[in-house]
Predict the structure.
Amino acid sequence: MKIMPNRLDRGFYMFQKEFEDKALEVLRSGWYVLGNEVKSFEEEWAAYTGAGYCVGLASGLDALWMAFRILGIGTGDEVIVQGNTYIASVMGITMNGATPVFVEPDEYYNIDTSRIEEKITERTKAILVVHLYGQASKMDDVVALAKRYNLRLVEDCAQSHGACWQGKMTGTFGDIGCFSFYPSKNLGAFGDGGAIVTNDAKIAEDFRIYRNYGSEKRYYNKVVGANSRLDEIQAGLLRVRLKHLDELAAEKVRIAERYTAELHNPLFELPRVREGASHIWHQYVIRSEKRDAIIDYLNKKDIGTIIHYPIPPHLSEAYQYLGYREGAFPITEKYAKSVLSIPMYNGMTDEEQSIVIRALNKFEG
Ligand SMILES: *Cc1c(COP(=O)(O)O)cnc(C)c1O
């Protein structure tokens, strides 16, 4: 049996009828951009996260770059971010001309909060926290630092829908929480989508202006904005998935807990959950010096895996201009060489998981 790292079709068939009915409903409505589905989704996502406002956007990257634009962060400013993130986090900063200042991650793959303070300069304007792989970061430390140094706080929640730090949802700790609804995310659309949440009415209003060519009133443009609207079909389909998000999240937790209970092989390390954090398991990430051999071995058994992410942003070609060389961030680079996401998705059968577990436990190097 072939096992793929992800199976988006399973997530569709689970609620096929509801998705199909909603898609037809929107198609037949005659209203396709910025209508009632988007408005209702925004209300429901704000309520789910416990934020005051939500604004639907076209992608997670748009949420990120617009966040820094709206906070007035640009050329000459520095933004602190963990080194081992998906490159879109960094692009959200650099698209505004601001400079990313990288911090090494801790053993939970999130920003090592004990290393933030040494990176703060008079140019530092914000901290961007990424709740990587679905685990909430240690937010009390970050919030305290942002307060002490008067920094803006933005959260990249593209992988952490519904994950909490000490019972409070990611995305609600700072100025702006940025979400992606790319199909593989825990709350996934059937195409691109994104949103922000905030408790600040003015920030929410600014996003509504920015996403629509910078106009509040039709054909009256206040700022040079973008076309970044969540569309009605995606918003409608997201509303269907959101109704089931808690059960979908619980299923992923069950799968992750089974991996943690049954995988036992000294040749790799299992992911851990920090006390006080919840983990929604966007990915189940193991770590091994023999990572590449594990990939080959699993491939031969028809088991697919993915590396999140093989090249850290500071070493990617796109960011050569920042001037970093190999060795600049040893922990970030070690993780890039050793992490591996094993198959994990909603609708994964016990049998499929047993095959993965058996194979990994038998790996001998
Ligand atoms: C997916 C992702 C993004 C970008 O979201 P898109 O909707 O694909 O633009 C940003 N940051 C992280 C951590 C992500 O995983």
User: Anything to note?
Assistant: The radius of gyration is 20 Å. The chain has a mean pLDDT of 98.
